[in-house]
């Protein structure tokens, strides 16, 4: 009897945890050039008619699958697995890469002149969209910088412009190269380091950049916060050990 009680208790707690991970999270997928598509999240279609912009609730779970099926049958279906994060608005742009292949690009915000065909109105201006941590300004840092950090952290508007470029490639290796170049050429805050980490698909890439960016950070005393952008306990522990060697 006790075994059954424990089993159902574990199931109940797991269900609550999964629900919490998706709480208040939204995803916006848009095609700046107007290509219409059906968006599927976790195998469930989110719009009945093809549209150039689709907004939906994020499904529960540690990760979910995005699938974009174009109205034009000549365009190959594209997809991506996204790690979940509570209280977040995910933005993905549907566009062609340098080779002319359609890809899903993670972006820090929505910038699109595409008319929402279903509603007959354009997407709301950026200043009227939900605010996320990515849209905070350089003057809103919550913690003081440490004594060992680099001077003059990058302003948030400049950083967001660079983050779009970093997130443009479809795979992690070129994203990582661009991210390391950004960190080398500019002084970043721990918050900005975390925002860069969110554009990567693989945990190993996130950890790689987290270690690299430490020496290019304005507030290293806060660097423990960066572990929030990692998903596995092993990675978090490895970053913690790395930070300890720097002090």
Task: Give a written overview of the molecule.
The protein has 247 residues and is α+β, with helices and mostly antiparallel strands. The protein folds into 2 domains: 24-135, Sandwich (Immunoglobulin-like); 136-247. The protein is built from 6 helices and 8 strands. The strands form 2 sheets. A 4-stranded mixed sheet has the order 4-1-7-8. Strands 3-2-5-6 form a 4-stranded antiparallel sheet, with no helix packed on it. Helix 2 (156-167) packs antiparallel against helix 3, helix 3 runs parallel beside helix 5 (203-213) and helix 5 (203-213) runs parallel beside helix 6.
Sum up the structure in keywords.
four-stranded mixed sheet, four-stranded antiparallel sheet, Immunoglobulin-like, 247 residues, single chain, alpha+beta, 2 domains, 6 helices
Summarize the structure.
By secondary structure, the chain is an alpha+beta fold. The protein has two domains: 24-135, Immunoglobulin-like (Sandwich); 136-247.
